[in-house]
Amino acid sequence: MGRKVAPSKRGKTARHYAKNAASRKKHVKDNSPGGKYAHSKEYKRVHAKKRASLKCKKNQDVVKKKGKWSCESLKINRRRGGAKRK
User: Fold this and answer.
1) Which residues pair with 61 in a beta bridge?
2) Is 11 exposed, middle or buried (0-12, 13-18, 19+ CB in 10 A)?
3) What does the alpha-carbon distance between residue 5 and residue 39 come to, in Å, rounded to a whole number?
4) pLDDT (tens digit, 0 to 9) for every residue of the chain, 86 residues total?
């Protein structure tokens, strides 16, 4: 995988993960590809189906707000930020 580096020459982040097992475990989980693709494929499948049934225009996204599906401008939807805004 990665090359071996002497502990004294490791970067600040690498030293942090070496000392904090819980943090390292989360880091590995977040950065490994396992489990990410099944969810995203399902998400895309559901949204594509809803997009077709709602007959959204080319420049619109399908969004779920307050339990209801609707078409919304790409610009407005993506400006909102999704998970990044939290």
Assistant:
1) 72
2) exposed
3) 35
4) 567 778 778 899 999 999 999 999 999 988 887 666 677 788 889 999 999 999 999 889 999 889 999 999 988 888 887 767 65
